[in-house]
């Protein structure tokens, strides 16, 4: 009998999980519905706290964004945006609201984790990071994954929280060197990570590589380097590869190398439970490989993989930092603001404004206009059925999950066609 992913299990402390971890997809693409279904199925999935106040406004009727815009309206003309700092109690309440509401609905033996992106610094990186982390812990989250940075001081921010040594905490790294730096700091407070996600160059969204050299790396080599380093250091920490793990067989290959599970995301962007609008999901199904690009449009400073025709590219959106200043650094600056103001000065405010170097990531994450995806997204069409009208059959989390667990030889177990599509397929003239 051929080996399947379902033959393995991930152990984190006393807990055992199906060895699938769904990465955090923001803003609000990895919805509560998505993570709850993954937990029901026995695996782990991440909520994302990206643009958290906008998420709670959308789902819980809060008015954080509108209230911030009103509060800072008189200062919107200022070039520097340090005045637009987030209210830490508001940030805490927003994260805790999402986490508590999700955890109260949880069923099954799986885990619900929160992906916290360090680069969402909100003009006060230390304060907002501390508020977000404590809110997640106090809200009852099962685990936290620290993303988009080395997080060398993040654990110190929450060491006094009563759940600090009980909740699962992991980090996302793209090299053994980055891992070593984090572990050296973690050792000082005697709190090692419970798992390590090793993200390779084919991942979606922000990448831990340079824009001109990501092609020279591969996930297998990085994973082997991390495993070798942990063995040499006599550390037994589960390693979870991510980025380009597209089939069940891909996952099995990594586990047979010594990994404990895999993290995946791209294939879940086109599920019913995901936050992406149906029209955007159909665009994803129709992706061609050459349409997926790595660029430096993100104001975070990290390279970013996305579709070449993402609505966020090549626009001149006025910065909306008073209500959406999630990427403002500790000086109140953002590289998009600089690029925007330079373009305004160059054109003297005449004609349609286009900012070619950067994008207002906050605005376009909020409106689903940043179409990030893993490199393998062009293969999404292989995983489902094309319908008579030319569109592709939308999947569920459970269907993608089943395919990962039970498929072999890099094949896919496609879902059955809906009855109405079967009829149309037999009578295409109707």
Name the features.
TIM Barrel; single chain; alpha/beta; 15 helices; 8-stranded parallel sheet; 13% strand; 3-stranded antiparallel sheet; 430 residues
Describe the structure in your own words.
The protein has a single domain, classed as Alpha-Beta Barrel (TIM Barrel), CATH 3.20.20. It is built from 15 helices and 13 strands. 34% of the residues lie in helices and 13% in strands. Helix 2 packs across helix 4 and helix 4 runs parallel beside helix 5. The strands form three sheets. An eight-stranded parallel sheet has the order 10-8-7-6-5-4-3-11. The chain has 430 residues and is an alpha/beta fold.
The largest beta-sheet arranges its strands as: 10-8-7-6-5-4-3-11
- CATH architectural group: Alpha-Beta Barrel
What percent of residues are in strands?
5-15%
CATH class: Alpha Beta
> Please, what is the CATH homologous superfamily?
Aldolase class I
What is the straight-line distance between the termini?
44 Å
The amount of helix comes to 25-40%
For the secondary structure, the number of strands is 13
Largest sheet: 8 strands, parallel
Report low-confidence residues grouped into runs of 5 or more: 423-430
Which outline best applies? Answer: globular
The third-level CATH topology is TIM Barrel
Number of helices: 15
Number of domains: 1
């Amino acid at each position: 009998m051929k080996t399947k992913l379902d033959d393995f299990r991930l152990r984190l402390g006393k807990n055992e999980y199906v060895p699938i971890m769904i990465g955090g997809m923001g803003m609000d693409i990895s919805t509560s519905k998505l993570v709850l279904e993954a937990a029901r199925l026995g695996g782990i999935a991440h909520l994302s706290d990206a643009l958290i106040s906008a998420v709670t406004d959308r789902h819980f009727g809060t008015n954080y964004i509108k209230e911030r815009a009103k509060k800072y309206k008189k200062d919107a003309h200022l070039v520097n945006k340090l005045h637009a700092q987030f209210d830490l109690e508001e940030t805490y309440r927003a994260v805790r609201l999402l986490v508590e509401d999700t955890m109260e609905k949880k069923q099954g033996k799986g885990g619900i984790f929160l992906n916290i992106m360090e680069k969402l610094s909100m003009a006060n990186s230390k304060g907002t990071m501390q508020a977000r982390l404590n809110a997640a812990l106090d809200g009852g989250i099962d685990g936290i994954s620290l993303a988009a940075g080395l997080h060398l001081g993040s654990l110190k921010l929450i060491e006094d929280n009563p759940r600090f040594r009980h909740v699962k905490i992991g980090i996302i790294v793209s090299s053994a060197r980055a891992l070593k730096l984090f572990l050296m700091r973690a050792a000082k407070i005697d709190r090692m990570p419970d798992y390590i996600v090793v993200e390779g160059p084919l991942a979606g969204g922000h990448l831990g590589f340079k824009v001109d050299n990501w092609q020279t790396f591969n996930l297998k080599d990085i994973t082997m380097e991390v495993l070798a380093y942990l063995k040499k250091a006599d550390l037994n920490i589960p390693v979870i590869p991510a980025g380009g793990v597209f089939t069940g067989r891909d996952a099995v290959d990594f586990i047979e190398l010594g990994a404990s599970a895999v993290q995946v995301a791209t294939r879940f962007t086109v599920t019913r439970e995901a936050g992406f609008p149906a029209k955007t999901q159909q665009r994803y199904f129709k992706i061609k490989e050459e349409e997926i690009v790595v660029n430096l449009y993100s104001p975070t400073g990290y390279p970013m993989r996305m579709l070449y025709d993402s609505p966020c590219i090549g626009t001149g959106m006025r910065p909306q930092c008073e209500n959406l200043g999630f990427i403002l650094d500790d000086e109140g600056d953002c590289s998009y603001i600089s690029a925007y103001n330079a373009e305004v000065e160059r054109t003297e405010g005449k004609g349609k404004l286009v900012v070619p170097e950067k994008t207002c990531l906050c605005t376009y994450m909020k409106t689903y206009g940043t179409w990030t995806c893993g490199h393998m997204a062009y293969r999404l069409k292989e995983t489902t059925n094309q319908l008579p009208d030319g569109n592709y059959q939308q999947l569920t989390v459970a269907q993608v999950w089943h395919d990962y667990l039970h498929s072999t030889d890099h094949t896919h177990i496609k879902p059955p066609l809906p009855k109405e599509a079967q009829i149309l397929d037999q009578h295409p003239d109707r």
